[in-house]
Amino acid sequence: MTGHRVAYVCVADGGLALGNPAGTHVLLDVDGVHERPAGAGRPASPRDGQREGWSVPWSEVVRLDVEATRTRLRHPGFCAGAITAALATVGLEWEPRTCPVTVRVGTSRGERSADCSGYEGRGYFVDRATALEQLFGLLVSHPAQRDSLADPLAVLTRVVTASSLRDPDAIRTALTASS
User: Fold this and answer.
1) Number of folded domains in the chain?
2) What is the pLDDT of residues 156-169, one digit of tens each?
């Protein structure tokens, strides 16, 4: 089940999915970081002959980087949808682009990466992407923060609150506040 989304992250499969869970994505949960390849819009399954992806326990993660196009538009997907609808009313077809997300996980044994499916729009709102970046840093550098992934919706709620702040220390405080 998928649900609430902030930029390129949503609640799915008991954790936070980086990228669109309908396609290839990376799942962060209390146990670690897991690539979830997908094909034909369904989750990967070994019995379908799809590769299983990789998993890295948090104890081995030394870096978590995400590359995603950023924009100053607060709701870029809504804007793309509105343009599509307006063009359709006059008989024109236009397919909005999606913004893929690349996730890189550094370990002591090397790097794992995943090119994840993105969402429609011209990018992801810069303030929310910045707060997510801070969250990933906290998850890597402060092992106690990983337990918060047991309630991924609460984590995303804190990301939204933190994204309205400007001071990096205030952002970190908002991200680490208990729910």
Assistant:
1) 1
2) 999 999 988 888 88
